[in-house]
Amino acid sequence: MNHNIICFVGSNSSKSINVQLVKSLLKHNMQNQTVEYIDIREWQLPIFSQDIETNEGYPKHIKELAEKIKNATHVLVGTNEHNAALSAFFKNILDWLSRYDKLVLEDKKYFVVSTSEGGRGALSANEYAQSFFHKFKAKEVLSFAFPNFSKNFSVENQVVVSDELNSKFNDIVKEFIK
């Protein structure tokens, strides 16, 4: 079954390991699905504030992303971690989205993917993102925290080199698109 899936990664780094992992996942694990990847790394959004919201309204990128989420059945989100939390860049996007239209996030199936160089695979940020989507009434939230990025991923070939982790990825992807 083919779903309307959108995907974005909450990192603004040009060298994001989360972008690399998610793009590899799309290429190797979701090749039979139609997925729109939205590269949000270059968005220049002001830090959310009620004053900006009241005086200037909502940034056009947030309106566009909200519309894409609204029309999607599934949302694949890559999340990076800074100091055991979401990056300020990604948290800001979630803040704007939830203020623009909190209903846009509900009743969707989410898959939260994260990675880091450490053994927890950015688990703290991953768990925060999961709780955020649950709070806004996600239909279902699946997750995967990919540990030890440099050890388990070939940057040169852009593939997961751990058979065990690749198998787990495949199992979760099957559940996500079921």
Written description of the protein model:
This protein has 178 residues and is an alpha/beta fold. The chain has one domain: Rossmann fold. 43% of the residues lie in helices and 21% in strands. The chain has 7 helices and 9 strands. A 5-stranded parallel β-sheet has the order 2-1-3-6-7, with helices on both faces.
Please give a handful of descriptors for the protein shown.
178 residues; 43% helix; Rossmann fold; EC 1.-.-.-; FMN_Rdtase-like_dom; two-stranded antiparallel ribbon; alpha/beta
Brief write-up:
The chain has one domain: Rossmann fold (3-Layer(aba) Sandwich), CATH 3.40.50.360.
| Known CATH architecture | 3-Layer(aba) Sandwich
The outline comes out as: globular
Distance separating the two termini: 7 Å
- Strand order, sheet with most strands: 2-1-3-6-7
Keywords: Oxidoreductase
Organism: Paenimyroides ceti
InterPro entries: Flavoprotein-like_sf, FMN_Rdtase-like_dom, NAD(P)H-dep_reductase
Pfam families: FMN_red
